[in-house]
Write a structure and sequence with these properties.
By secondary structure, this protein is of the alpha/beta class. The protein is about 40% helix and about 15% strand.
Amino acid sequence: MASSTSIRNEELLRPFQVRGIDFIRANHRVLIADEMGLGKSVQALAGTLNQWPVLIICSMGQRFMWRDEIQKWTTADEDDIEIIDHQSKIDFSKKYYIIHWDVLRFAEKLLKSKRWKAAIVDEAHKGKNRKAKRTRALFKLRAPVKVALTGTPIVNRPDEIWAILRFLYPERYKAYWEFFHAYCHATQNHWGAWEVQGVKNKELLIKELQTLALRRRKKTVAPELPDKIYQTFTIDLSPEQRRAYNEMKEQMIAQIDSSTTLMSPTVLSQMMRLRQIAIGTGFFTDGPGSNAKINFVRELMEERHGRKTVIVTQFVWAAKTIIESLKADGLKTGGFTGETPSEARAALVKDLQEGDLEVLVMTVQTGGEGWTLTAADMLIFVDRPWSPAVVKQAEDRVHRLTTTNNVHIVTLLARDTIEQRIEEVIDFKQEMFDEIFDGVEDKSDGPKQIVNKRISPATFGEIEDLL
């Protein structure tokens, strides 16, 4: 490990990436919050160059991607890199050690070692829950250089960024509730739980983040990139779907007590069932069911004429049904869910990027982060998650610095269903995020509070309105 390592392909670095590298080297503990697809990994690798050993924390499916990125951008060879788990016995003789988020909570002794010189935390928003075991383990990581990477440091609420700040500067961010009351406009409900309704003291939060975070957007640093073209199709449910939807909706409304202020797990579960019925009835019938959205996808793919497509859903059954349907239509189709091994996911991505795979179907949880899918010029949301950050993560798999064609982002909405109201929630959450991080980037002025809407429904009465 004594031999030094240098940057490879340095001529490919863009000026904003060089600035990011300099920012890391100058400040040592930073958040790189660039939009997805702007090359955060190379900035982190170059910014921590020769700070051996480096611990890289990433999702399970991205371990091999990080290994490839190290070899692409540095002169380190394969013998300098080790992919580890919580049972690994390491002697700190390698330059790079890669561990995934899911075993972080078992690796406390490893994280507390004083021998780490640098740590890179990819998809740092995965640690937003300060009470989660893996986040608490992350807080114990000791290293003089720490780099947190995420294009979505706030997924739903302003206080989610506290855990990232706590990781970077534990001596400064000791008190969560102090941060919460300083920057979250919140009220207590009937049960005493805090409901966050927006951000307050925006200018103070922006000023604080500007000292330790760097965020750039594609339209600013790469205006030459092709456009994203958005299109929404409203799909009519089949008669079978409509009957199933109305039955579930009526059952749900019958259980609602408007004086109750919290959502029960039963109601949340039923809301997810409504969302699945909006895709099709295949998830609760023995046969194929009636799947209006999936039928629409099949019709849409008939017009694609060999162009590559990525299809995203939250539900495993829907992903599997789409894969089977498109294969039956003669399209070379592959896909992955949480059940798919990491190596198989990487092989499918390579086949899409370099081979003859025409359609890649993925669940948003496993496919929305880290992968480069720029061979596709269309991404279809069969359904969209509540969080705009997750939506953006998925979109930017196909819209990155290497994108050469316009990218079509297609969203399918079921008419007269909960999905149309969910779009309003997504829009508001995105508005809140932009209020904070556009200010971090552009230093723009704006109102101190956004308190006109709730981020999420808080009463059963509001749930009924959603329906």
